[in-house]
Design a protein that fits this description.
alpha+beta; Aminopeptidase; 5-stranded antiparallel β-sheet; 3-stranded antiparallel β-sheet; 5 helices; 8 strands; 31% helix; globular
């Protein structure tokens, strides 16, 4: 995969990206909101990157793709993961690069490409209600809220927001 936006490149992982994946995973927001995506060692990150590379050829996913600045710097990822009742969008931008609209820009390009690739008419977005940045990204992308309340998240019952994105609808950009 290779998707280019004004500022970003979304591509496939390569083995040499393990160090950046490790480094990007260690920030406090990642630990707080997606602790299962924290890699304490480069070796853990390397094993995961190798696994993810092996998933690209199949249809069951997960489909996780690094987000690079045009300079080539790896700043995070976007992903689609099957969660039992549909495909869920996920993303993480390293703390040093948050607040610049990169998550919105990457997901806005990634969603229609993956919907077309997998023949999807809708994609789910779930985040903790307290993760206001992710709630806002989903709003900008045109996700429609379908549930807010206590529900399953990372193996626990937490206050979540569940949204649905419909293929063919354009998300509004309010200054992302």
């Amino acid at each position: 995969m290779r998707i280019e936006t004004e500022r970003l490149i979304i591509t496939d992982f390569t083995p040499d990206m393990a160090e950046a994946v490790h480094r990007n995973s260690l920030d406090e927001d990642n630990r707080r909101f997606v602790p299962d995506e924290v890699f304490e060692t480069v070796e853990e990150a390397r094993e995961t990157v190798e696994f993810l590379i092996g998933r690209y050829g199949g249809a069951e996913g997960p489909f996780v793709h690094p987000v690079l600045l045009r300079s080539g710097e790896n700043i995070g990822y976007v992903q689609l993961v099957f969660i039992g009742d549909g495909w869920e969008l996920g993303y993480h931008i390293a703390k040093a690069h948050t607040g610049k609209g990169y998550a919105t820009e990457a997901a806005r390009a990634f969603l229609p490409a993956m919907a077309e690739k997998l023949g999807l008419s809708g994609i789910i977005g779930i985040c903790l209600a307290e993760n206001t940045a992710s709630v806002r990204v989903m709003e900008k992308l045109g996700f429609e809220p379908v549930f807010r309340g206590v529900g399953p998240y990372q193996g626990e019952q937490r206050e979540i927001v569940r949204n649905v994105w419909r293929a063919g609808r354009k998300g509004e950009d309010h200054g992302a």
